[in-house]
Design goal:
411 residues, alpha/beta, Aspartate Aminotransferase, domain 1, seven-stranded mixed beta sheet, 15 helices, 39% helix, binds pyridoxal-5'-phosphate
């Protein structure tokens, strides 16, 4: 499929076009044409003043997206998982007592990463599919932890973790509140400042609609003070924030640290322009409507959401597969016959759940209509009630993002 073409004699073979896919899984999400076009611009040097200007604009748009004025805000050269490693390696010291909310795969990974960093890990758990009760997190915060880490959007189960008051609770005892905002950033209402989050990371390939490859990252004064007061340097050279910031925020010129993935920064810059053209508030509302409309559209097909009302993650609708339906077969048919990717369930939902992305431009009527029609066809059901429910749901959205305005992929 991706084999180089024109092997015989042609210079500079071009990759054959990959298949047309409508990406409605847990990530990557659909990439708008504007973002792809930005990526295809000529590469310039990572120390070129013109690139510096682009970095400043990108960082400023990221601050607005995170809802923070933190100077230390930048995209790390890594996927979201690299953002997790950076968070842990900079702000957790060996021997620290660190609480972690665990209610799914990404909470589990965080607990693993914390243990590797030498932290004494205090797990605060909930069953997969539920949020960790706030009271339990407040209890843990009251026990004098050095840090508390939460996954704001648990993509493995479609749950959004409430954070109310956790920042204040941690700050009262001098600890840090740290967060995984990979799936929530740009799709679920979030302000780093209002939530009192001291440091957080995200990824480009979920609600921001850029390809995978960068990890937006932000750290506030408390977190930076913790970093500066460390007894030992962070164990990772690449992710040592004080070194990376010498390049991203260099006050007396940018010092070479590593060669930034230039064209990925072009992509993120363009993706963030799309976010702010729409405005964050409108975008959050659109994700809410998209999630709810799709949930209602799937109900007539016997498909129910896993997360209870009030705990749902708008950018990711995780559902139970109807009794008697072969999960993998239907998912495979969606991809093969309809060119639509959705994701399977994980953990206790493996073979019994689907995870449907409602991310960025994917959170619009055209792709959702195509998914509903394809699902109904594969389940041998009539789609009329579902499509009516989808249209009805979207009627409450004051503005809709026209798929055709940002993507030439048929939806
Ligand atoms: C996708 C995801 C990650 C990992 O991001 P990658 O880009 O796949 O490395 C981490 N946390 C959450 C909540 C995610 O959804």
């Amino acid at each position: 499929m991706f084999a180089p073409s024109g092997r015989s004699g042609s210079v500079g073979g071009v990759l054959k076009a990959p298949p047309q896919r409508l990406l409605l899984g847990a990530g990557p999400s659909p990439v708008p044409d504007r973002v792809l076009a930005a990526m295809a611009q000529p590469t310039i040097g990572h120390l070129d003043p013109a690139f510096g200007a682009l970095m400043d604009e990108t960082a400023e748009m990221l601050r607005r997206t995170f809802g923070t004025e933190n100077r230390a805000t930048l995209p790390l050269s890594a996927t979201g998982s690299g953002g997790m490693d950076a968070l842990v390696v900079n702000f957790v010291e060996p021997g620290d007592r660190v609480g972690v909310a665990v209610a799914g795969l990404f909470g589990e990974r965080m607990a693993d990463a914390l243990g590797r960093a030498g932290a004494e890990v205090v797990r605060v758990e909930a069953g997969w599919g539920r949020a960790v009760p706030l009271e339990r997190l407040h209890e843990a915060a009251g026990e004098g932890l050095d840090a508390l880490v939460v996954v704001h959007g648990e993509t493995s189960t479609g749950m959004c973790q409430p954070l109310d008051g956790l920042g204040e609770a941690m700050h009262a005892s001098g600890g840090l509140l740290l967060a995984d905002c990979v799936t929530s950033l740009g799709g679920q209402s979030l302000s780093i400042e209002d939530a009192g989050i001291d440091a957080a990371f995200s990824g480009t390939q979920k609600c921001l609609n850029a390809p995978p490859g960068l990890a937006p990252f932000t750290a506030g004064e408390r977190a930076i003070a913790k970093l500066e007061g460390r007894a030992q340097k962070p164990r990772s050279w690449f992710f040592d924030l004080s070194l990376v910031l010498g390049y991203w925020n260099g006050d007396s010129g940018r010092a070479y640290h590593h060669t930034a993935p230039i064209n990925m920064v072009y992509a993120l810059h363009e993706a963030l322009e799309l976010v702010h053209e729409e405005t964050l508030a409108a975008r959050w509302e659109r994700h809410r409507v998209a999630h709810e409309s799709l949930r209602r559209a799937l109900a007539p097909l016997g498909i129910e959401r896993i997360a209870p009302e009030g705990e749902q993650l708008n950018p990711l609708l995780a559902v139970r597969v109807p009794e008697g339906v072969d999960e993998a077969a239907v998912r495979g048919a969606l991809l093969e016959r309809h060119g639509i990717e959705i994701s399977g369930g994980l953990g206790p939902f493996a073979g019994r759940g689907w995870r449907i992305g409602v991310m960025g431009i994917g959170a619009s009527p055209e792709p959702q209509r195509r998914l509903v029609e394809a699902l109904a066809a594969e389940l041998g059901r009539d789609s009329a009630d579902s499509l009516a429910a989808l249209d009805e749901g979207w009627r409450t959205c004051e503005h809709v993002f026209a798929w055709s305005s940002v993507s030439s992929t048929p939806a």
